[in-house]
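<context>
A single protein, sequence plus fold
<entry> Chain with its tokenised backbone below
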Amino acid sequence: MGNRMRHVRWTAVVVGFAALGPTDAAVGQAGSNYEELQTFTGVLNHLRSNYVDSVSYARLVRAAIDGMLRSLDPHSRFESREEVARAAALARGELGTVGIVLEDVDGVPTVLAVVPDGPADRKGVLPGDRLLALDDSTMAGRDAESLMLRMAGPSGSRVRLAFERGPRLEPRRYEVTIKRDDVKQPSVGVTRLLDPATGYVRLAHFGADAADELEKAVNGLRRSGARQLVLDLRGNPGGIVVASVEVASLFLPKATLVFRTRGRKSTVDEEYITKKNGRFVDLPLVVLMDEQSASASEALAGSLQDHDRALLVGRRSFGKALMQGPFVLPGGDVVWLTIGRVLTPSGRFIQRRYAGLAVEQYYGLAGQGGSEQDTAEVFQTDAGREVRGGGGIRPDIEVPPGMARPAWHAVAADSGFEEAVADSVAYALPASDAGRAAWLSAPERWQAELLDPFLQRVRERLRIPAAADTALHAALARRLAARVALVRWGAEARDELWLTTDPVVTRAREAFGRMEGLLAAPAR
């Protein structure tokens, strides 16, 4: 293939010379390109010969490639053949993982999402935590994709991770030892009735079977009496683009445009259109989203919003809608290049601005929208509602973020303080349905029986003041109470507690009564 491609390119050059002859501009450009390559080679040779420490060509070339790709956009990347093979083994389920998704933020690998009930989640790792070290190896200069591969290993083996949390000027560091596990992450997570008429489904990511899993879940809820649905995309980092089209097809009529892609090459330009009437085309729908909803989840949310098919509740999404395609190099390495952009049906760009921004600046703006210039252009939904693009997808009803937990909480979780306090309370509670109902509806007990003993351990054993903060303490009490519910009555009781005390879910349930007016065409 390489020789054939070289032959094609050289043939084109010969034909060009024969037909037109070389132009001054072409000669000048060729000369300029040659001089730039000569400069690069000169720098490379001087580094090899004169730098104070011995460095290999392989290390220098890899650094040059990474720097070159970073200068283009935040998502193009290079994978060595070893990383490709390791990724394939991970995809086949031959390696265990810690259950986190990383992104590069401000030059530091940062947790974008945590797999619910996965190894890292059980240790208290949170989205936004910054990874500093892996088994005492510093993470400086390493990209997120390669780090996630390094964190994988034989199931049952352990890895020591160091994180920091909080403001960068005054970060709080903590370390956890995580046991790798065979993390099977289905696309659909929690599925339940919020009330006799309202179903709830969490779509964690867009795997190959996302649409089938979601259809099965919604059918089950409808058989149980659900007449309206809350679809939770919070923390969904994306996945397979085609899977998001299939999910959208469940809620849209036949021949509806889901989104379109546009690239430099016409082969990238494509319109994704539903092929049949959706099973749930008439089901009232509210979609939950936040700053960790990215890529395919943003494309889905934007499409449903443009068609006035769903009401979006939560916080502005991440703002990532670029397509990457793999290109295999002769030695087996792979370069993933951004080849296109995703547009919603109304023509909105979801992607946040990155030109002129360092990668660190770009990730630092996650969920904060674009600049005024980015969001100046107004688009319209099918009903004529005004929407804007350029900085992620903005929800129709915005809900402020909750209270972030402090770094010392992860240390306390790794030390087993949560389990020690919560489990002792759980085993003392009656296992009956009445005991469960009493616990789930009594937040004042969570404070006295859980939070106070937990904070006492933190202050005594970690020598941390853990100063009083009403919002923080309410969040910690809720987490401890959920642990009690899990231990005493199982995952269903824990999920019920989380959802009944979630302010975003509460706003979603309230929105159904106003949906017709909120999605209607504006008064003229």
Observations:
- Confidence is low (pLDDT under 50) at residues 1-21.
